[in-house]
Amino acid sequence: MPIAVDHLKKVALEIQADTRKGKLEFICGAASDGFCPFEYELLHKTPGDQLHLSVPKDKAVGTFAHLYTPLKKALGITKPTEMLDLTVSVIAISDPEPREIIQALAQAADQNGCGGGCGCGCGGC
Question: I need a labelling partner for 20 at 20 to 30 A (CA). Which of 5, 72, 81, 90 fits?
Protein backbone atom coordinates (compact mmCIF):
# COMPACT_ATOMS: atom_id res chain seq x y z
CA MET A 1 0.00 0.00 0.00
CA PRO A 2 1.51 3.37 -1.02
CA ILE A 3 2.20 5.99 1.60
CA ALA A 4 -0.54 8.65 1.74
CA VAL A 5 -0.61 12.32 2.69
CA ASP A 6 -0.97 12.53 6.44
CA HIS A 7 0.21 14.48 9.48
CA LEU A 8 3.93 15.32 9.36
CA LYS A 9 4.55 13.63 6.01
CA LYS A 10 6.77 15.35 3.49
CA VAL A 11 4.65 16.07 0.42
CA ALA A 12 5.86 17.00 -3.05
CA LEU A 13 3.30 18.50 -5.43
CA GLU A 14 3.25 19.70 -9.00
CA ILE A 15 0.80 22.57 -9.36
CA GLN A 16 -0.58 24.12 -12.51
CA ALA A 17 -2.51 27.38 -12.65
CA ASP A 18 -3.43 28.45 -16.19
CA THR A 19 -0.09 28.49 -18.03
CA ARG A 20 2.01 28.57 -14.86
CA LYS A 21 3.49 25.39 -13.46
CA GLY A 22 5.54 24.87 -10.33
CA LYS A 23 6.55 22.45 -7.62
CA LEU A 24 5.76 22.79 -3.94
CA GLU A 25 7.23 20.69 -1.16
CA PHE A 26 6.16 20.94 2.47
CA ILE A 27 5.57 19.04 5.70
CA CYS A 28 1.83 18.45 6.05
CA GLY A 29 0.21 19.74 9.25
CA ALA A 30 3.28 21.61 10.50
CA ALA A 31 1.48 24.88 11.26
CA SER A 32 0.54 25.74 14.82
CA ASP A 33 -3.14 25.69 13.86
CA GLY A 34 -2.83 22.18 12.40
CA PHE A 35 -4.09 21.45 8.90
CA CYS A 36 -5.18 24.28 6.65
CA PRO A 37 -8.13 23.68 4.28
CA PHE A 38 -5.73 22.95 1.40
CA GLU A 39 -3.98 20.26 3.45
CA TYR A 40 -7.37 18.77 4.38
CA GLU A 41 -8.10 18.43 0.66
CA LEU A 42 -4.81 16.53 0.24
CA LEU A 43 -5.26 14.13 3.18
CA HIS A 44 -5.09 10.44 2.23
CA LYS A 45 -4.10 11.20 -1.38
CA THR A 46 -1.30 9.04 -2.79
CA PRO A 47 1.32 9.68 -5.49
CA GLY A 48 -0.40 10.02 -8.85
CA ASP A 49 -3.63 11.45 -7.40
CA GLN A 50 -4.86 14.81 -8.68
CA LEU A 51 -6.97 17.51 -7.14
CA HIS A 52 -8.72 20.40 -8.88
CA LEU A 53 -9.39 23.56 -6.88
CA SER A 54 -11.01 26.87 -7.75
CA VAL A 55 -10.29 29.38 -5.01
CA PRO A 56 -11.60 32.97 -5.09
CA LYS A 57 -8.95 35.60 -4.44
CA ASP A 58 -10.60 36.67 -1.17
CA LYS A 59 -10.49 33.06 0.14
CA ALA A 60 -6.91 32.21 -0.93
CA VAL A 61 -5.17 33.17 2.34
CA GLY A 62 -7.70 31.24 4.39
CA THR A 63 -7.50 28.21 2.10
CA PHE A 64 -3.70 27.97 1.88
CA ALA A 65 -2.76 29.69 5.18
CA HIS A 66 0.99 29.31 5.82
CA LEU A 67 1.41 27.70 2.38
CA TYR A 68 0.06 30.68 0.44
CA THR A 69 3.38 32.53 0.15
CA PRO A 70 5.32 29.39 -0.91
CA LEU A 71 2.53 28.55 -3.40
CA LYS A 72 2.69 32.02 -4.98
CA LYS A 73 6.49 31.74 -5.19
CA ALA A 74 6.30 28.27 -6.75
CA LEU A 75 3.93 29.53 -9.44
CA GLY A 76 5.60 32.91 -9.90
CA ILE A 77 2.41 34.76 -8.95
CA THR A 78 2.99 38.40 -8.08
CA LYS A 79 -0.59 39.64 -8.43
CA PRO A 80 -3.31 37.04 -7.77
CA THR A 81 -6.23 36.84 -10.20
CA GLU A 82 -9.86 36.94 -9.06
CA MET A 83 -10.07 33.14 -9.22
CA LEU A 84 -7.16 30.78 -8.66
CA ASP A 85 -7.84 27.62 -10.69
CA LEU A 86 -5.36 24.89 -9.77
CA THR A 87 -4.61 21.37 -10.84
CA VAL A 88 -2.57 19.76 -8.08
CA SER A 89 -0.74 16.47 -8.67
CA VAL A 90 0.76 14.50 -5.80
CA ILE A 91 4.27 13.58 -6.92
CA ALA A 92 5.82 12.03 -3.81
CA ILE A 93 5.20 11.44 -0.12
CA SER A 94 7.87 10.46 2.38
CA ASP A 95 8.81 10.52 6.03
CA PRO A 96 10.82 13.69 6.70
CA GLU A 97 14.01 13.87 8.70
CA PRO A 98 13.52 15.33 12.21
CA ARG A 99 15.43 18.49 11.23
CA GLU A 100 13.03 19.01 8.29
CA ILE A 101 10.07 18.92 10.68
CA ILE A 102 11.71 21.51 12.93
CA GLN A 103 12.47 23.72 9.92
CA ALA A 104 8.87 23.41 8.70
CA LEU A 105 7.51 24.36 12.13
CA ALA A 106 9.75 27.43 12.22
CA GLN A 107 8.87 28.43 8.66
CA ALA A 108 5.13 28.07 9.29
CA ALA A 109 5.45 30.32 12.33
CA ASP A 110 7.46 33.01 10.49
CA GLN A 111 6.17 33.59 6.96
CA ASN A 112 7.15 37.27 6.82
CA GLY A 113 3.50 37.89 6.05
CA CYS A 114 1.16 36.65 3.40
CA GLY A 115 1.20 40.04 1.75
CA GLY A 116 -2.22 41.22 2.90
CA GLY A 117 -3.85 42.88 5.84
CA CYS A 118 -5.99 39.84 6.51
CA GLY A 119 -5.17 38.98 10.10
CA CYS A 120 -4.47 35.37 9.16
CA GLY A 121 -1.99 34.94 11.97
CA CYS A 122 1.12 34.69 9.83
CA GLY A 123 2.78 37.50 11.75
CA GLY A 124 3.48 39.79 8.82
CA CYS A 125 0.16 41.38 8.02
Answer: 5
